[in-house]
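Quick start: read one record
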Amino acid sequence: MSGHPRVVVVDYDMGNRRSVEKALIRVGARASVSRDPRELRRAEAVVLPGVGAFPAGMASLRRYGLDTVLGDLVAAGTPLLGICLGMQLLFDRSSELGHTTAGLGLIGGEVRALAAAGLRVPHIGWNDVSLERPSRLTAGLPAAGAPFYHVHSFIAVPGDEHDIIGTAEYGERFAAIVARGCVYGTQFHPEKSSRHGLALLAAFVSLAEDRSPIAAAA
């Protein structure tokens, strides 16, 4: 890599933020964890991690004003990667906990319970992800896809199937990787997914490099 782009992991009291930070540093990013809007706006890319419930996640983002900051960053073209709950929060709404909660609305669609067809929920463990269409986020992965580590009970259902980059199956087929413009999401945890997870994060860091001052001056 030609530089060390700034990638900020959003701190909104949800998810394994430090594990994501360490994985990003390993693949060449100048990574940090912050909820300071000034730090986020200076970043070349932003990661929204998450473990937990959708309503609590959105309440926390709103409490810190991060919903507005993330919307502004995406409007400015800053790459954003949502991981697990972070991916689900990118969508319009969720039915988790029996009522509708509005999401960030950065990708059209909804979040609903995984129809696991009698399988144990939450879905925990390694599962193959098949690639449905090319994306810069998956450029470093085998063409047929790869196994990734999942921990979830809910799935995102994009309104536009072209936003689906990769799928996995557990009781039903679901969107495992999504992308719309500069917004990306993985239902699985790349930071826990060994070499293929690191390859995906490295591809995301390369998106950040495109926005770095070094790249802009080239």
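The chain has one domain: 6-217.
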